[in-house]
Design goal:
25% of the residues lie in helices and 27% in strands. The protein has 7 helices and 19 strands. The strands form 6 sheets. The chain has a 5-stranded antiparallel sheet with strand order 6-7-13-11-12. Strand 6 and strand 7 form a beta hairpin. The chain binds flavin-adenine dinucleotide. The site of flavin-adenine dinucleotide has 29 residues, from strand 3, strand 9, strand 13 and strand 15.
């Protein structure tokens, strides 16, 4: 890795961090280190990296880390994060909004009000980045990114750039057929005209709803499990008597029991074990198998096995 690090440092312009703790980059605040964390300066830098990266070194892309449970043993290989100003641009073109993948959903708010764009308010209350919203077809308040996405520009592992239409992602509830080696660079969203007062009002109402019904300012990664068809995951969790389960520093939110919380000293293993225990108990009680909505990645720490 040292050799690779030196080579990359010579060839690339962005930030390269060795053994970077991923707990610093995830909302759950857990996770071992990335062998290398690369923050490309711009698209050329990212392309250059993909063209020079040895085939035997895996790479992973992360966004705001709001949907991630990185295991305690960390991630072998290279983790890429589109966190430089180049990847945080927003522009308006005719009836569309063009956003770089690293744009934080929350930072859309001001732009929507100033430019009188309606229909995208729901995105602003989802933590994380626009790039991170595609894989799981993120959504809330009755809308998903698939309802407002026209196309996305992606770069693949070979450094080839292409534009992918909404249809090609084959979106469904919290899912898409997104290949693991694609990196979203930017998204084109529908931008309908909206009244700025109504936009502001909607944004306020949605934020208020979240603050009253979901954990706020907590170490969480959003919904732990997807809602099975015609069912609510939180109801199944309650019905199976799991809402008060705790493991180490991992527990379920008192406000919404489908949100797992790191109370402060949880390990990734605590959180994953709690999740798996819930899956087992819900299956025993109801016959339904809950599916993780949180993306889990990385290696288990040998000590915690
Ligand atoms: C308090 C809270 C509330 C939440 N509420 C909701 C909600 O209402 N609805 C909802 O859908 N989700 C919700 N979430 C989950 C999360 O915010 C969303 O899934 C969000 O879209 C993840 O974006 P991110 O940038 O943080 O991605 P990450 O968590 O970093 O990554 C998520 C996935 O996207 C991939 N990814 C990230 N960036 C890129 C990129 N540029 N190119 C390709 N792949 C990429 C990663 O590899 C990973 O597989 C919530 C989370 C929290 C903490």
């Amino acid at each position: 890795m040292e050799f690779l690090l030196n080579t990359l440092t010579r060839q690339l312009k962005g930030k390269i961090l060795l053994n970077e703790p991923l707990s610093k980059h995830t909302w759950l605040n857990v996770g071992g280190p990335a062998e290398i964390l690369f923050i490309p300066k711009d698209l050329d830098d990212l392309k250059n990296f993909l063209n020079h990266k040895p085939d035997n070194v895996p790479f992973y892309i992360i966004g705001g880390g709001s949907n991630l449970l990185v295991r305690d043993g960390g991630i072998k290989g290279i983790v890429i994060k589109l966190d430089s100003p180049y990847f945080r641009q927003i522009s308006l073109s005719k009836q569309t909004l063009i956003c770089s993948a690293g744009v934080k959903n929350t930072s859309l708010k001001k732009f929507l009000i100033q430019n009188q764009i309606g229909g995208l308010e729901f995105l602003c209350s989802i933590p994380g980045t626009l790039g991170g919203s595609i894989k799981t077809n993120a959504g809330c308040f009755g809308q998903s990114i698939s309802d407002v996405l026209e196309s996305a520009t992606v770069i693949n592992a070979e450094g080839q750039i292409k534009t992918v239409s909404n249809k090609q992602f084959n979106f469904s509830y919290r899912s898409s057929n997104f290949p693991p080696d694609w990196i979203i660079i930017s998204l084109t969203l529908k931008a309908d005209h909206g009244d700025p007062n109504q936009i502001e009002q909607k944004l306020k109402e949605q934020m208020l709803y979240r603050k009253s019904n979901q954990p706020y300012n907590a170490k969480t990664a959003g919904s732990t499990f997807k809602n099975p068809q015609g069912q609510k995951a939180w109801q199944l969790i309650k019905l199976s008597g799991c809402e008060n389960l705790t493991i180490g520093g991992a527990k379920l939110s008192e406000k919404h029991c489908n949100f797992m919380i790191n109370t402060g000293n949880a390990t990734a293993n605590d959180l994953e074990t709690l999740g798996n225990m819930i899956i087992e108990r819900v299956k025993q009680k109801t016959g339904i198998t809950l599916e993780w909505e949180i993306q889990r990645l990385g290696q288990k720490d040998e000590v915690s096995d």
